[in-house]
Amino acid sequence: MSFLEITQWFSPRSILVVNERGTLRRLNCPFTVLCLDAVGDLNEYRLYQVSSVKITEHGKIVYDIAGCLFFHSAFKIIDQ
């Protein structure tokens, strides 16, 4: 996937997701996520607010939560 294709899916202030009903939606920051694995100072099965979305130099999506960056794979987006 090229950089141009990636930037169509999200920006630092929003992300496009397909929900469980198969509908494409744009979620604007802040949005709520459930922590699936304890990472850093975050506790497993707690809710957190994503303040921005970033991409690493290797193309991995990370969430900014409380000023720290975490890989998106440790979280589940809570449908809003």
Strand order of the largest sheet: 1-2-3
Rg over CA atoms: 12 Å
Helix/strand-derived category reads mainly beta
Q: What general form does the structure show?
A: globular
What is the share of helical residues?
under 10%
* Strand residue content: over 45%
Low-confidence stretches: none
DSSP strand count: 9
Helices and strands, in order, run as: HEEEEEEEEE
H/I helix tally: 1
Our count of domains comes out at 1
Distance between the termini: 28 Å
Overall mean pLDDT stands at 86
Biggest β-sheet strands, sense, barrel: 3 strands, antiparallel
Describe this structure in words.
This protein has one helix spanning 3-9, and strands spanning 10-11, 14-18, 24-28, 31-35, 47-50, 52-55, 61-65, 68-71, 75-77. It is mainly beta and 80 residues long. It has one domain (3-77). It has a three-stranded antiparallel beta sheet with strand order 1-2-3. It is globular and about 30 Å long. The termini are far apart.
Which structural traits does this protein have?
mainly beta; 80 residues; globular; three-stranded antiparallel β-sheet; single chain; 9 strands
Topology, element by element:
Elements: H1 3-9, E1 10-11, E2 14-18, E3 24-28, E4 31-35, E5 47-50, E6 52-55, E7 61-65, E8 68-71, E9 75-77
Antiparallel strand pairs: 1-2, 2-3, 4-5, 4-9, 6-7, 7-8
